[in-house]
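Consider the tokenized backbone below.
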């Protein structure tokens, strides 16, 4: 779902060397047919009533389909705060569509939970088998590494970057890496104080 942490999970899978990764395919865009590209390709598409999953599958022709889920209460809370919550369809309709996918889990090769991804690495790695390795959690393949590789090996990626795909809402470090933290929520007050302090000192 939008605001589920799926972009971060896609970046995790994109740590696989020599891989094209469309980290965040925009809602309203059909997953491209990249079958002629001689590289592994990962595409993250979101639930959006404007484009059914079947249309993405027919175009992209994936070898593997992963359903990525976040706890519904957290997902609703997070998405409710986003300006794009009704992009690609009303938020309520998107969650109804996601519920439908959850009833058809056998249509997916793997089902991964956001909370497990953050807090139970061994469970996620065991579930994914050869699709992921422990070192992927180090996120050494940077944003620029992926962008350069995508542009070099895919005309579609080169042409449509920031027009039909991007890196979603991932919070990158200055060097383009990611520091993964626990999924447990912290009080917002210290964050606000920290921001105020930063504003007052800059």
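A designed sequence for it:
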């Amino acid at each position: 779902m939008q605001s589920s942490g799926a972009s971060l999970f896609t970046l995790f899978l994109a740590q696989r060397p020599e891989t094209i990764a469309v980290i965040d395919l925009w809602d309203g865009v059909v997953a491209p047919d990249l079958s002629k590209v001689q590289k592994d390709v990962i595409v993250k598409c979101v639930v959006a009533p404007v484009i059914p999953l079947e249309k993405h599958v027919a175009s992209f022709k994936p070898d593997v389909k992963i359903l990525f889920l976040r706890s519904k209460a957290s997902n609703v809370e997070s998405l409710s705060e986003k300006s794009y919550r009704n992009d690609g369809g009303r938020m309520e309709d998107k969650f109804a569509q996601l519920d439908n996918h959850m009833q058809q889990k056998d249509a997916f090769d793997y089902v991964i939970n956001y909370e497990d991804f953050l807090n139970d690495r061994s469970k996620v790695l065991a579930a994914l088998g050869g699709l992921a390795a422990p070192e992927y959690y180090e996120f050494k393949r940077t944003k620029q590494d992926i962008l350069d590789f995508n542009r070099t090996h895919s005309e579609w990626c080169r042409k449509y970057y920031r027009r039909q795909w991007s890196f979603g809402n991932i919070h990158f470090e200055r060097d383009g890496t990611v520091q993964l933290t626990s999924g447990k929520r912290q009080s917002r007050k210290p964050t606000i104080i920290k921001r105020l302090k930063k504003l007052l000192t800059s």
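The longest helix spans residues 188-201.
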